Give the backbone structure.
Amino acid sequence: METQNFIIDEEKVLEVLDDGTSMDFLNTKVYADALEKSIECVPKGKSFTIGLYGDWGTGKSSIIRTLEKRYESSQAKKYKFVTYDAWKYANDSFRRMFLFELQKQLGVKRTEKMDRFYDNINEDIEVKHKSNPSYGIAILIAALIIALILLIIPKENISWSFGFTTITSIITLIIIYLKHSTDDLKVTCQKSRLFAPEQFEECFDELVDASLKDNVLDKLLKWVKKDDSPKYNKLIIVVDNLDRCSALQAQEMLTAIKSFLGKRSNVIFIIPLAVNSLKHHLVKSSCGEDNENEANEYLRKFFNVSVWIKPFQNDEMFDFTQRLNEEYNLHLSKTSVSNISREYATNPRRIIQLLNNLIIEFSLYENEFVQANESAICVLAIIREEFQAFYSKLVTNPYLLYKELSDVDKDDNPKLELFLQRTKATMLPYKETIGIIDRIISNSAVFQCLPVDVSEALETSNISKISDFIGDNDKKKNLVLDCLKDKVNKVLSRGLSDTDLPCLLRSIIGIDSLGFLSIADYKILIDLLNENINWKKQIAYLQDVDFHPVVDFACKLRDESFGILFNEIVVYYSSLKTEGKTYSNRVIDNIGYIASRAIDSDYDNTLIKCFYDAYIGNPQILFKYKYLKPSSLFSSTLVNEVVAKLSYEDLVEKTGSQYQLMEINKQIDENSDVIFQSYIKQVLSFTPSYSFNPNNSNEILEITVHVVDYMKQLPNINITDASALSEFCNRINNTVTVQIRYIAEQHNLYSEIASSEESLRILCDFLKYTSLRCGKIFVPHKMVETLIASKEVKAVAMEIFSDFVVNGIEIADYAKELVQYTIYDDAYLKVLENLLALDTEGNFRISIDLVNKEISEMLDFLSSDTDDMVESCAVRLASVPQLQSIMTDKLSSKPIDYLIKLPTELKAMMVEKFAEHLGDFEANIGVLELIASHGTKSNVKELVKVITKKLMTKGQEAIAVSLIKKLHYCNKKNFDLLISCLKNFSDDVIPEEDKNICFEHLSKIVPTK
């Protein structure tokens, strides 16, 4: 970030400069004008005390400076400004330092009186005399020693001559000892002349007199004394920063000014102060005033006039802050400017201080971070400056920004609630990216290399952003995972799991769904999450979005021996019902998915009860999942409840009991008919028997449709007991006698619906699916007869029986009804082949009459029409010896024209059969002619024997000749034999013409080689 210059909080001249600009950001120059007018209104020769009232930082000093600058530039008005900084000398004597500053700023020479005023006086207050007995004792001991010496020394040896010096020394010694035998104790006090109020006043007057303009005599005397000190018309003394001093000091200064200084003519005192603070701090604390009125009255004693600086409006403070923002290139958003100006609406100085603090604060972060989050940084800086106790709590728990303030916080910070409300719009977007707040207030830079938007994405669960950042880069992936784990650790260590952990869990789950988490990561997360976490709140938050990945994640943790989350999920959803809440479809879907992911150890009463409650809410949703132990979830109790609800009205519902039973059947075992048996028995309870009533018919058919639908939906069901279905068929098959015009008529359902294709198709489906699921046919013969007789559905019915054949279902019992079918289509031919097939003992499964009938009809069809399918079927049937014999019998009585029209393959088979038993057919001219015209060479060879025999038999010659004419082959040997025989007959027996024809025909068919 570029280097920023601090904003200097200094006195500004508010006048318009030469370049047209002005530093009057808050329009306070008017107060300088007001002060100027106040000064000019003071009567000549009078003193005045003016109070300039305004809160701290509202520009009082700049107003004074502007006024001073204005007078300095004035040629007409010689006014001198003297500023005394009360706070600067708060710990010194006001009187002495005030005179010192006054003399210094006025440039007046110090007088003798002022010099003496600064000297201190030492004064003895008390003198006491105290005896010292030690000196007396010392003198007495010395005298005794001298006396003792004199007594010991002989008198004749003593010389008593004393000189003046000796006597003087002795006397001096005695005096010294006597002087020190007592001590003088003095108490001395050093007093300053400051304590003489009249001298303070006199010195002040001297200074003022020396500065104000003189008369002619005074000017002459000063010229003689060479005194060139400046002269002024008025002195304006400003006592600044008085409101910063202690209550006692402020009171003493005001008293001194008003009592000693405020009476001097041509002297004006201007005292700027924060009046509200002074009233409560000074007046009420020091003077014992109890109400606002008395406090105001107390201040009026000191000031002759007061100039009030009016409170600033929000717009003015906004403009002031914005101008500073632009002038110093702070790049603050208008949101930040608004927040700052509102918080410090009465204190421009605090705005400047905060802006300087923000310059330092912004330097702690990279440019991109500041540009993206400067509003949040600004708000938190204000909280740190103004609400420090709350800020300390934020360091531990940033989510306090989004919670209701406690009563303690409200009491400690009455303005905090309003400030948080004002800045709510600024801070609310960070609720989901609390890591940014955490970085601002905690100075954390552990993951500074992680882009801010990615860090935000972790807290807002923007998985696509995270995925784009990671890509295929393992280093980036590890960085993101480490950051995420660190955030989780912080949240848990701070006790913020209820508020902050859910969003991080959503990010973890989202990342896991992308396949970024390994088993090692799961184990680390397990260690972190293995805390005293209120999982109910976590799950409540997570279940608002796609919950399936949450369950998948819980299952992965469960696979690593951490099943708490999965169990808590089950408990959470179970508790919703306990709390009386209604399961929504989304919740039911989640429960179904949970149950589908459950393993054997998860199947407890809680899971089963939860699933049951979900089933009651919307079973349809649960059926789309597969379950490990469906029989535990879809218990017999649940199935019985569903069956009990089954009724005719419920049956027709798309998602009614039948639908549920079908789906349960699929879940538990598609092959089992246990549930179906319960179902069909319940259906029988409300299925009526047929009666001569249209409504009754419709009801039976409607029920039949749904019974069929059940079986359609379960293609693998194996119905082992068809008794209930048989009873259902009896209800359908019931016949009633109706008396019409004295005639008793029999009516049943079949006759009623005989012309309704839709109804008949219902019975077709019933026939088909009941038979396929039961593995046998048990429907009434009348039903099959009706279906086969119907031109609308007989083909469908035959197709059904064809399917039965394919599926190995026995159809022989319905042969009588089936053979009424009149069309040789593929289905019927398949059915016919099955009906004509032999049992394991080689016997026909249907009556021989039906067999003969069907064989005769098929042969008749083939002799009159051509159909490859029928021909193939006949050939296959003819391959069965028993059927071949029947065919042989049938054909042996047919004329040659009939036989010749048979299909070639069938005809050949029949010829072979006839040839095998040629002796039995010597009298059957048609069979012999068939062999002659279509028999094989060997067949013809045997036939020639029969022809020869007939030539030799009287009366059979003509038959023999006709057979010769029919031969299609004759070998040389038989040729010679037949020629020889024919020549032996006279023309009377065989006419010549016939002979010649025979000779000619044999010549054509005999091989040339």
Remarks:
- The beta strands are 48-53, 79-85, 120-131, 182-192, 234-240, 267-273, 305-308, 735-740, 743-748.
- The first strand starts at residue 48 and ends at 53.
- The chain is about 60% helix and 5% strand.
- The CA atoms of residues 344 and 351 lie 6 Å apart.
